[in-house]
Specification:
mainly alpha; two-stranded antiparallel sheet; 8 helices
Length: 190
Amino acid sequence: MNWDYAQHAFLILGLSCLLGLLLWAVGFGFYLNQIGSRGWASTRSLLRTLPAATLAVAVLCGAEWENHLVPHIVLAHAGLTSAQMAMAGRYVVGDRILRRNQAKARIWVARAANGGSADAMLVLAGMELNSRSGSDPASALACAKQAGARGLVDAKLLTGDILLSYPNLAQDGQQSLTCASREGLGCWKG
């Protein structure tokens, strides 16, 4: 977490919420005046609606804050794979609030892959191959095969590339058919 930026961002968010509450209170006061409410009854009515208005203003300000970070966090924890991939992307590049963290990005991609996202399976396969802590080609192959089974052509190409680089991963009694169409070499049996 980038705390220097977060302090300023939370200050701006808080001031935005206070401004929103002030505007709501003025508008509610005009409404009470229009319906003829006077005295303590109108003040109590104003105070009763204050918690709900505070929550609504905070959610609206938070939804617009930092390119929809708050909804992405909520939806990612709820299991929406597109929000999980968005959170992973935020951790990969690092934005003003979330610092770069490849381990957390991998966790979010793995959650999206477990949720059934073929794109996340392909990204996870690439992460497994290019990990700084050591590549795991067997795991990358499994992820690429799952993504390929869901119809991603890039995943099928990655499966072939992995089998070319690591021929010991091909199952016994099975020939690996690998297409090197990127280089225009055609297909060959290994």
